[in-house]
Design brief:
The strands form 6 sheets. This protein has a 4-stranded mixed sheet, with helices on one face. Strands 2-14-16-15 form a 4-stranded mixed sheet. It folds into 2 domains: 206 residues, Enolpyruvate transferase domain (UDP-n-acetylglucosamine1-carboxyvinyl-transferase, Chain), CATH 3.65.10; 205 residues, UDP-n-acetylglucosamine1-carboxyvinyl-transferase, Chain, CATH 3.65.10.10. It is built from 13 helices and 23 strands. Helix 1 runs parallel beside helix 2 and helix 8 runs parallel beside helix 12. It is 30% helix and 25% strand. The protein is elongated and about 60 Å long. It binds uridine-diphosphate-N-acetylglucosamine (UD1). Uridine-diphosphate-N-acetylglucosamine binds next to helix 1, helix 5 and helix 6.
Length: 417
Amino acid sequence: MAKLIIEGGRALKGQITVQGAKNAALPILAAAMLIPEPVRIGNCPRLTDVEHMAGLLRALGCRVDWTGDGLVVDAGCARTAALPEDLAGSIRSSVFLLGPLLGRFGAAEAPYPGGCDIGNRPVDLHLKGFRAMGVKVDEASGRIRCLGRPRGTEIALEYPSVGATENLLMAACGAEGDTILVNPAREPEIDDLMAFLNGAGFDLRREGSSRIRVRGGRRGHGTAHAILPDRIEAGTYLTAAAITGGHLVLRGARKEHLSALLTALKEAGCRIRSEGTDLDIEGPERPKELRRLVTLPYPGFPTDMQSQVFALCTVARGTSVLEENVFEDRFRHGAELRRMGADCDLRGRSAVIRGVKSLHGATVTARDLRGGAALALAGLRADGVTVMEQAERIDRGYVDFAATLRQAGAAIRREDD
Ligand code: UD1
């Protein structure tokens, strides 16, 4: 168990370099399973979720080693297509291994991922897609058992799920014949996965914004790929500058992946300039309210930034309305922020946040990864000391979160029990 102890009231100042994206690293590591030769995945963030995925690959018989800023995965000696219960239960993205295992071995088995801390997260779209590819899927006794070599076909997703898109693309690489995915997710991490797979000898192409074609029947070979910068990590630090009235330069950020957030931060009164891959942000003394912010699949406003922007709205001049459209239970940080003096009403998928002049330090609990980040940002702004419990939840998505903020002038330290 870990705690973050934050003395608020200091404006952030300095430079932060953006790490590789967690949400690209996880499916790309899983995709390495498709390739019977060593692959190098550079700019890979050393996060607990990434370590868990590396553990899963090892349990399947792969060699996985850290070298420099990346991981080398050799799936050449992978033998089994069944994921062990104890390891797979601890990380939701173990479900990403189903697609590549099917593509490689024509069989895959994993524990059912179940719900998680931001709501019930079904995998029906993944499994429906596998079935459309002719795979037999059995969901009895809490495990998902998939059997049969996937066959290329046209699959239309009812919703552009990120995970289902990735899983189906990976299964399609090992399929017989071509697969056309209609209404795929458009998140940049999908394109990073496609770039990795294309570099390994597969053939995936977007046809306009609403279709991806995958040519089947190819064998993957060794390759090297550098993970794209993490837009959510970058967005979190930008929002930290915004809430503290600070001045930060984010190095290595891709502003084209941050458009919806940058629009919101400008509406809140931030000054943002970009030069090459640097983003320079100056926060206002007190943010303006966000009239109505709605989370949507990319290129809409990302659900993974909703909690951090929620924290920003708690100290805005007026009333903000946030609508969460992607996950059903993603406002748990609201109740924690109230302990710090926030004034908000939560009803179903909507939050009404009446900005207060100041927050005060309190003892709060990180209920999920991004909600935890949001509480830390509120703590940076609040008067007095905030103690955030269950801070280890933040390690899933941020490398050295406290140390990074400390370098930018925050008074924040971590205590591990
Ligand atoms: C990924 C990201 C996560 C992000 C989310 C949305 C990773 C490792 N995680 O999660 O950080 O918040 O995208 O941008 O990349 N759904 C179904 N059936 C399915 C699949 C999804 O109903 O088979 C629903 C989910 O319950 C949720 C919505 O679709 O309400 C979005 O989920 P999805 O896009 O699949 O997100 P993840 O891939 O789980």
